[in-house]
Amino acid sequence: MEAAATRGAAIFLREAPLGATSFAMTAATINPREAAHFGALAADWWNPKGSSAMLHRLNPVRLAYIRDQIDAHWHVDARERHPLQGRRALDVGCGAGLLAEPLARLGAAVTGVDAAPENIAAAREHAAGQGLAITYFAGELTSLPPQTFDLVTAMEVIEHVADPAAFVAGLAARLAGDGLMILSTPNRTAASKLLLVEAAERIGAVPRGTHDWDAFLKPEELTALLEGAGLKVVDRTGLSPSPARGFKLGGSEALNYLIAARHA
Length: 264
Prior knowledge:
The protein has about 260 residues and is α/β, with parallel strands linked by helices.
């Protein structure tokens, strides 16, 4: 679910505060407790000053990375306003649509899926108000019609699923032959435990219970899961706090990172 709660004092909202994206998207991976936790935040998802405030600040940085990877993968001119025109995009753990809507504006036919029905209801209402035709599903990834997608994203989701390997395999099964997959997730380091879990929850930047540090994946662990699902990592970058801009790409991966992959 785009998790909605800020993360760290660097604080990475799981798209649902940092993606509080939805969590387990297959029958084997959905974690009911996680789905309920983020579903309770649905009504506040689109409030830029609410519980998802940090996510609203983080989203432009993630979008910049996604755009760079789109341009590189499909050799698109950076000046093109609709680089996803004619392509299908799937946002898994979409929350209330913070990422799905920008992808639609980039020209994609977007499908969003989230484990929390409350998030999907909020996403549908907001998209309708924006005049955006986005297809939303509540439930497991397997509940979607049988089809593949050119772009598959899951931002701040894998750390919330019950079975990361099964989750990645499910994402890979939905990726078209020439498709691009982009994930983001916090790293399991001493710094992330201090800033994204302990400090964030203590100061109220993230709702208590949002993160389980033991479930965070190190880059090499996520890479192994992707390779095990028949994918090849093509790029990886850190996502870190910036005094000037709030967040920035590149540099340290100690708190959070993004990773792009394609079929091997």
